[in-house]
Fold this sequence. Notes:
Elements (H helix, E strand, L loop, with lengths): L1 H103 L14
GO biological process, one term: synaptic vesicle lumen acidification
Pfam family, one: V-ATPase_G
Family: Belongs to the V-ATPase G subunit family.
Amino acid sequence: MTSQSQGIQQLLQAEKRAKDKLEEAKKRKGRRLKQAKEEAVAETDQYRLQMEKEFRLKQSKIMGSQSHLSDEIEEQTLEKIKELNRSYNACMETVMNQLLSVVCSLQAKVHVNYRATN
Length: 118
């Protein structure tokens, strides 16, 4: 009997050790999954930051050249406005004199198709 109870005790202890080992393995698996997830998140964050940095560099190159073009266009526009103002000031008096001479030199005539009615 003692050998049987001793055998049962050994079986119970072996079962308990196996159960403990399974729980430990589950904990290790859970920790490993959590660690793998953290590593994956860190890796994706690093990749995202790298891509954002490259995007900002490309964007600054493009926007820099666009701002240069807009400055150049603005300069050309201002130059054209100055040229038009000079032309306006140079020709304004001549045009006004021509216009006034046409308006002031009207001759009153009866139109050829006019018929007098009695």
